[in-house]
Amino acid sequence: MKFLVTGGAGFIGANFVNYMVKKYPEDMFINLDKLTYAGNLENCKESENEPNYKFVKGDIADREFIFDLFEKERPDVVVNFAAESHVDRSIEDPEIFVKTNVLGTTTLLDASREFGVTRYHQVSTDEVYGDLPLDRPDLFFTEETPIHTSSPYSSSKAAADLFVKAYHRTYGLPVTISCCSNNYGPYQFPEKLIPLMISRATADEKLPVYGDGANVRDWLYVLDHCKAIDLIIRHGKVGETYNIGGHNERSNLQVVKTVLNAVNKPESLITYVQDRKGHDRRYAIDPAKIENELGWKPEENFDTGIAKTIQWYLDNEDWWKNILSGDYQNYFQKMYVDKGRVEE
Ligand code: NAD
Ligand code: DAU
């Protein structure tokens, strides 16, 4: 089989490519990525010399380029990870989120239809379900939870999902969708909570916690997400959505304190800053469908996964220091220092 994996130079896409290239030497993997600020070919270094791997630079929203690529490569399976993925950036500048996440998805769907792919898989998020109250721990997101988005990011992802479903219903395109909770692990861009806190704590810098730090996320180790997608592509039912999560809910404050404890730094580094606009309170996935229908179970819990992850960042300082020394410096200045959230 020939796979077209989009966004395979980003965090989850690269972990997926590296996992799949090794696991399925008889399949071919084409990694298509625009290499935005979040894309980094270093992330797929372990795959780059493999005979069943190839990288192509390009934009999923560039219709002419995408149709040419499909004509040339004729992929059997498309797995769409490519997206603008950071909520805070979507609040500052929503337009690129519409272009990449919505128009990029419809462009891939059109090409998949035209060239008859046997499976189109859309990598989506639990953020399409909105949020849950903190005082109702009995509530979880199921596949039947209504779409109810909060940020420009989650709205763009939900819009994309609706198009994916429409292409199945209207044109019979063989699609699947997965909605996963917060991922963490190697190669996550250090704008996201866990790598941001690890990199700043090791440098004795202030750790900006939004609002009261009580917001809850349901953390999943990235490889468990990749394995779930592999299962869905091979055994999932066409037209279905599968929620992915491992019941590892933690408040942001708990996560930050876990990081500080692991790197042996004081809690006095924590600084409470202005809250994110429209900040979702709690995400929590009910994974019963993927567990019961496909036999998926996460292999890591938060304690084992976070220990591995922190160790990876400590062992790979060059990877994130290269990022922090580039354009990202301007981002931190604009989003945290200029807004008076953190003093440098
Ligand atoms: P990321 O920001 O680390 O990576 C995104 C990748 O997409 C980058 O390599 C970037 O260069 C590429 N890209 C962006 N725009 C593109 C375009 N127009 N054409 C081609 N490539 C483009 O994101 P991530 O955290 O790895 O997330 C991957 C996917 O998983 C996204 O669709 C996201 O919505 C979804 N998701 C993420 C999480 C999470 O916790 N990170 C959880 C659930 C779902
Ligand atoms: O739930 C899945 C989603 O998880 C994915 O769809 C998104 O692509 C991914 O970015 C992630 O979204 P979040 O907004 O939950 O992740 P983030 O790492 O940005 O923030 C996690 C929590 O930490 C959130 O409640 C905001 C808070 N936070 C974040 C940052 C960057 C802080 O308190 N301080 C910070 O500096």
Description:
The chain is of the alpha/beta class. It has one domain: NAD(P)-binding Rossmann-like Domain (Rossmann fold), CATH 3.40.50.720. Helices cover 42% and strands 16% of the residues. The protein has twelve helices and 13 strands. The chain has helices at residues 11-23, 63-73, 87-92, 95-114, 152-171, 193-202, 222-235, 252-262, 288-294, 302-315, 317-325, 328-337, and strands at residues 2-6, 28-33, 53-57, 77-80, 119-125, 175-180, 183-184, 207-210, 216-218, 220-221, 241-244, 249-251, 270-273. The strands form four sheets. The protein has a seven-stranded parallel sheet, sandwiched between helices. Strand 1 (2-6), helix 1 and strand 2 form a beta-alpha-beta unit. Helix 1 crosses helix 7 (222-235) and helix 6 (193-202) runs parallel beside helix 8. It is globular and about 55 Å long. The N and C termini lie far apart (51 Å). The model has no long low-confidence stretch (mean pLDDT 97).
